[in-house]
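Appendix B: a complete holo record

For completeness, this appendix reproduces one full record from the ligand-bound portion of the collection. The bound molecule is guanosine-5'-diphosphate. The inputs are the chain sequence and the ligand SMILES; the output is the full three-dimensional arrangement of the complex, encoded as structure tokens. No fields have been trimmed.
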Amino acid sequence: MAKRFSTETYVKGILAGDRVMLSRAITLVESKLFSDQELAQQVINEVLPHAGKSVRIGITGVPGVGKSTFIEAFGTYLIKEQGKKLAVLAIDPTSQRSGGSILGDKTRMEALSMNPQAYIRPSPAGKSLGGVTRSTRETIILCEAAGFDTIIVETVGVGQSETAVHAMVDFFLLLMLAGAGDELQGIKRGIMEMADAIAITKADEQNVQKARAAKAEYQNALHLYPIGPSGWVPKVSTCSALQNTGLDAIWQTTADYLELTHNNGFFEKKRRDQNLQWMYEAIRQGLEDNFYSHQQVKQQLQSIAEQVKNGQKSAFAAAAELLRLV
Ligand SMILES: Nc1nc2c(ncn2[C@@H]2O[C@H](COP(=O)(O)OP(=O)(O)O)[C@@H](O)[C@H]2O)c(=O)[nH]1
Ligand SMILES: [Mg+2]
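The structure of the chain with guanosine-5'-diphosphate bound, as generated:
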């Protein structure tokens, strides 16, 4: 069990920007213990009025595209050139590595992890996507309350985690390689449609020409999509994290997006919609947890499932029977 303090101690520490207290509160959020969860909820409730005043940026792309290297360079740029305070979180439900993808990549984020203006937190290990999503959302609030004005949420770029991240950020950046082909990059149409910006990575050395060609190609492809409710036309650019090029353009694109969506009200609306979605998800999760932790359900689930497997009971009848137990 995590070492525990009073709600007030956590809240005071977080609001004062105490990183140790912030980390401990995040550990509570990630805990599976009911008592830790209860305490976490109290802390979140208390700091909530101090949260929300940030830019939340989601970053995705297939493994190897250069996410970690990009975040190191872009994050350092944001701190040094834009005076930001940056928190980097990760969503990696599959990660079994030493505490998550970001820690495993720590060598690629060396400068950032040592920068006092940055806070890096790996994805919680051993959790389902739903579990990771929930703790990451709550972690965003805690980081914002601790004074971080820019939150980057990295996702591994395989499966459903992009959708989860998209639903918790203001701006969604897709990193892509030049000349690798959409298929190779596992990029489904849906993910391109979610992107507010695409950056072609590794635009350096012999790659520059290819990157420019890819930029034109993706720009054309994006023009085929109808403009969404944000009124924003997604932008494509090239960058090199190793040479620190193209980073200012990506920040400018982000700033343009923020200006447009603040002015037309989309930013606020999206945040409100995300909050509502979050509530419904929490309800669904709560109902599910209640159901599966119910004593009688625990006792009978196995045997009733067996009957369904053997064709002795229909799936619907079995579900109804189990649901009646609660
Ligand atoms: N040439 C070049 N290589 C890069 C760049 N960014 C990342 N890489 C390399 O690409 C590989 C994968 O990078 P990484 O950041 O771990 O990708 P991730 O799996 O998406 O996090 C590493 O060998 C990096 O050194 C870049 O801007 N230029
Ligand atoms: Mg990485």
